[in-house]
Amino acid sequence: MTFTPPRGAVVVGVDDSDASTRALEAAALEATASHRPLHVVHAWSAHPTGYAPGTYPHTAVGLSDALKEYAATVLTRAVTGVREAHPGLEVTEELAMGDARQVLETRSEEAAVLVVGSRGHGALKRMLLGSTSAWLARHAHSPLLVVRPSLDGEKRGVAVGTDGGHASANALAHAYAAASRRGTGLTVVTCYDPIPRHVNDGSPDLQPGEPEAVRRTMAEAVAGLAEKYPDVEVTLDAVASPAVDHLVELSDHVGLLVVGSHRRSRIGSLTHLSTSRVVVEHARCAVAVVPETEDRAAV
What we know:
By secondary structure, this protein is an alpha/beta fold. The chain contains eight helices and ten strands. The chain folds into two domains: 9-147, 3-Layer(aba) Sandwich (Rossmann fold), CATH 3.40.50; 152-291, Rossmann fold, CATH 3.40.50. The chain is elongated and about 65 Å long.
């Protein structure tokens, strides 16, 4: 059942958890909305350490075959369900042997979007644990969408964390496209440090306590996108606050939070790699992590 995903497909990792079911549905909706095929991947291991105690009966003879058979059942169940729910969607499937993180990282090279669930706690609990999504936030080559327990986020707004300058271009473009497709508003957030720091890293020369200066820089950054997406109502929000704290709090009020995976930026480190990782682990809405060099589809 090994199948190389079509280039530009929406790729989703599945296991036997409720989180995986939600991720699969979110991925199917994304593939339908963006007119892309859906590629469903389940990675399995010949070692039983990924199973919760008492959930798998085989302990010795034929363990590898039994594990593979169970993994195939998990994949078949997922693919059958999504095909029934979305009969017009092109769906391919893949049963891959190996570490789920590495398998999904490799598939992300050709993906438009990689989708995973958060906090999977089924029998194959290693597949989609929060640590897996955090790891993929650092290593995925495409945008990563981490799905939370509710799909109601489609009806809510989109927010994006930026550094106030050009380093956030991909995350901004991604967020605008997502808001346009969802028919929601967009909040562009820059968290800045009110205490001046002298760092020669190319960041805008912002003075402490000048939120209007931050907003002017933000307005310049979004000008072209505002013309491209006139249907998206945008709010610019300059906040003198630690980036992670504000974004996690903001996640209670939006359906999708977009962050970039860049090196440390001076203004609130909104595109710092550790920021995206912490947001993925603690945000209470869906999170999209957009690589710095990514220039493909939006979640």
